[in-house]
Every structure is written in C-alpha cells, then in structure tokens.
Design brief:
Length: 199
C-alpha cells in the first residue's frame, strides 16, 4: 500500500510533471502495443502506469490526446532514423527502400499515421489540434530541409515526396499488402513526377 501511495503523490515541480507525463506516454505505448488501437483506453493506460485514471486526465484530455502525443513522438523518431539512414547522393530507389524500411520498423508509427485524420484529430480540442499541427509541420519542415541536400531536391520537393510516399505507405499497410516491388514502382512514379515538375 505504501508504494502505491508514493506513486500517487502529486507531481508538483516542472521536472516531476515532465517525468510523470513521460511515464504516462511510456505506459500508453506499452498498452497500445499490447491491446491494439481499437482496445486502447485511458483506463488501460492508467492500469499500465499504476496510476488512477484521473491522474492521466491531468496531463491528457482524452484517449485521442494521448494517441496524438504518441504520434508526434513517433514521427520525430521516424524522421531521425530516416535521415540517419539516408546518405548524401543516394538514388531515389535507395531512398524509397529506406523510407519503407523505416516506416515498417515500428508498427505503431504506421498505425498512428493511418488513424491520425479519421480518428485522432477529430476527437481533440481545436487548441490541441493547432499545437500538434504546428509541431508536426515543424518536424516535417526540418526533416525536408535535412533530406534536401542528401537527395538533391529542394525542401519543398522533399516535403511533397514525403507526403506522397506517406499516403502510399498507409494505403499499402491498410490493405496489408507486402508486395515490395509494387510499392517501389508506385513510389518511383511519385518521386519521378515531383522531380519532373521542377524542370
């Protein structure tokens, strides 16, 4: 009993609050991996974090707010991995293969991307949506800039390529298609089309 009371103590300092929020996100990720998207719940996260449900609501408005925070976190990690594995001068095909590999590396990332607009964003406050869009735009802008020199494209072209490849990747994952060569053909058309528009 004493351990549970200690864990329930209110986080008062900024560091304690940040630590509690981080612990909730870790628990949310574990719960999502165990239960899947449809069964993901605030109650399950609270149970996983060994907190009362009300504590979760001090940090997140609802289930979708938690999922959105996980998406933003996963987007940053995915982008960092994509850049790390994209050397300068790589071919479009090599980049497309890297894009696919990084997207498939963490199944939660694609699951969150696939549900972002239809489920997650529809059920959060306009204020939180605006903040998340600014963060997402910043992450994607930074990613596009970092990749532009490596791919010999403008940042705007990279942004268009990332958007097109993202839609293709989600479509493929939703249809549960694993035909790598078909993905590559369609992805090469997208990237080639973007390159051709600039000529």
């Amino acid at each position: 009993m004493n351990q549970r009371v200690t864990e329930r103590r209110r986080a008062r300092s900024k560091d304690q609050k940040d630590e509690r929020k981080r612990a909730i996100l870790v628990a949310a990720e574990a719960h999502l991996r165990e239960s899947g998207f449809e069964k993901f719940s605030v109650t399950g996260v609270a149970r996983q974090a060994d907190l009362v449900k009300g504590t979760i609501y001090l940090y997140f408005d609802n289930r979708e707010d938690l999922l959105l925070a996980l998406y933003v976190e996963k987007l940053g990690a995915w982008g960092d991995a994509l850049v790390r594995q994209s050397p300068s001068g790589m071919s479009d095909l090599a980049f497309i293969r890297n894009y696919r590999e990084q997207s498939l590396a963490d199944p939660l990332y694609l699951q969150l991307v696939a549900n972002l607009t239809q489920v997650i964003q529809r059920n959060i406050s306009p204020e939180k949506l605006a903040v998340s869009k600014r963060i997402t735009d910043y992450v994607l802008e930074r990613l596009s800039t970092r990749l532009s020199e490596r791919l010999d494209m403008t940042a705007a072209q990279v942004a268009d390529a990332l958007s097109g490849l993202g839609l293709l990747m989600v479509g493929v994952s939703l249809r549960d298609e694993s035909n790598e060569s078909e993905f590559e053909k369609q992805a090469l058309r997208i990237v080639g089309g973007i390159r051709a528009e600039s000529r």
